[in-house]
Please model this.
Amino acid sequence: MAQTLIIQPVSRIEGHAKVTIQLNDAGNVESARVNVIELRGFEKFCVGRPAEELPRIMPRICGVCPWSHHLAAAKACDIVFGAEPPPAGKKLRELCNSVAYMEEHILHFYFLAGADFLLGPDADFSVRNVLGILQAQPEVGKRVVKVRHLCAKMLEILAGKSIHPQVAVPGGFSKPLAAEERDRLRAMAEQTLALAKFSLDFAEENVFQKYLETVKSLGTITTGFLGTVQDNGALNLYEGKLRLMAPDGTFTEFPYDHYTDYISEHLESWSYLKFPYAKKWGHFSMDLVKPSGIYRTNTLARMNVCDRIDTPLAQAKLEEFRQKFGRPAQLTLLYHWARLIELLYNAENTIRLLEDPEIISTETRAKATPRAARGVGCVEAPRGTLLHDYTTDDDGMITNVNLIVGTTHNNAPINMSVTQAARSMIHDGKYDQGTLNKIEMAIRAYDPCMSCATHRLDGKISLKISIFDADGNLTATLTN
Amino acid sequence: MEEGSQESLPAFCRAKTLVLGCGNILFGDDGFGCALVEYLETHCRLPEDVCVLDVGTGVRNLLFTLLLSPQRPRRLLLVDSVDVGSSAGELFEMPLEQIAKVKEHDFSTHQIPTSNLLRELQTLSGMEVRVLACQTGPRDQEIRLGLSPALQEALAHAVDWLAKEYFPVTQR
Model:
């Protein structure tokens, strides 16, 4: 009898994501779909507002990556106001980006995805969490916690506060960095670098080698990749041009504001979220054997598209990574490995920026004048390429907004990885909690931000598996 | 700065009492907690050892920091809006044990249920954790800034509750 399995964390605003797995009469996986609730009406809300408000409003979209939205909005405003930030303004923004990245990547590796590896994917959910990690690896946990505190403190020093940042403004950065502050940050940055180096060594020895077979098999798909590089092809997370790499490693490059020439958005009736795809590669297809138009963003994509990393330690790790897995590397769980190389890059980049004498210049912002224009701001958010596309009228009021967030780029690949994982593990209708955990691991590799506006306090059921027969009758329900 | 020193901790870790206003101001009444923090900051004088923060939708990240911090406030109050079928603007304290224990899901920080983190904070850290909730009005289908009249009115009542239960509050 055909069955439908539904993995559904329910949230206060209709839910974050739901995984639906359709089994056929033989009990094998027919299809798997990840449904995501999309923020509604945001573009409409922005229209008619002064453009300079958007860098302050955008961090409110998402409590997980407010810095990325803040910086992408500020960059879009730079263009619509015709206000090129002075070098110190750009460098301070990039510095904030790198520190925020470190905080995010540390959290994800050690306390979100890390639980799967450090405690095992079959561990009960009640211990497969941050506290379980602290009990299992107390010394590692303490060290990680201290550096994460440091990152939050560094953002406080740089921006006045780390929550809902407002420091980036059209044309630059509103708070110059004092020499004394720079010196304090420099001492802190040394500790973040030490943790980044430790993390890669720790993961290579204790995680990646141990789970290499899982890495090679879980959620594996073949796609292209999208990410930002500098003119010389080096990795950059704040500024550059977009590079779209085909599965065979060939690539094309384009400036941010040409993204609509290369990226189109496919719609599926069963999903609120759009499916961006590379339209010059042909039609859209999530067929696992013969996909078309599919590309990925986020850490693995950035490691693939860049020619090199211009900080020495991260470059050495990238070379080792490529020796092991080639370029482009396709294994989905390598997102975790790539994330740690990025952690190291950001730690080095933080020190490089702090040692740049220009970072303490008091000239941090240019004069911004309202005008009719279109501006596309782009940064590499921890979860993928983030595009903010604004159009203004003569008074600098917003007339049009389009956003493509990192997780949206990865919508199709996440669906494909879940399908691959489900098909490889569910046979003859047999599955258990460990199977479902591993399917979730395929999703977690992408570090998705499922819905950029939800939070929950009074949620009741976070995971539910409903099994339906072919006629749509509920035959069984499993809950945690 | 020495690693792990108190100075290296965010300021909110070092307050005696921490009030976190939760919610998304882009969803009307959902932003009640944020609005209360703004009200406190603009209309009231608070004791020096009290820290109030508008944490928006980023509370989990901050609770992580608190949970893992070597130094924490003695008391933590979360202010949030909920929909439990009461009258719009009704205020009530929500005991932690009433918040269902659910799977510690881990797709992202969005999915780490705050309720479990709150319990862990109270159990493991000895911090007094309380939750003040306000019933929302009808749910908005689209983005809208600002509270409905009923929740706007509830702000002053929430301040009265704080003054009675928590710390002295005087009007500016």
In short: The longest strand of chain A covers residues 373-381.
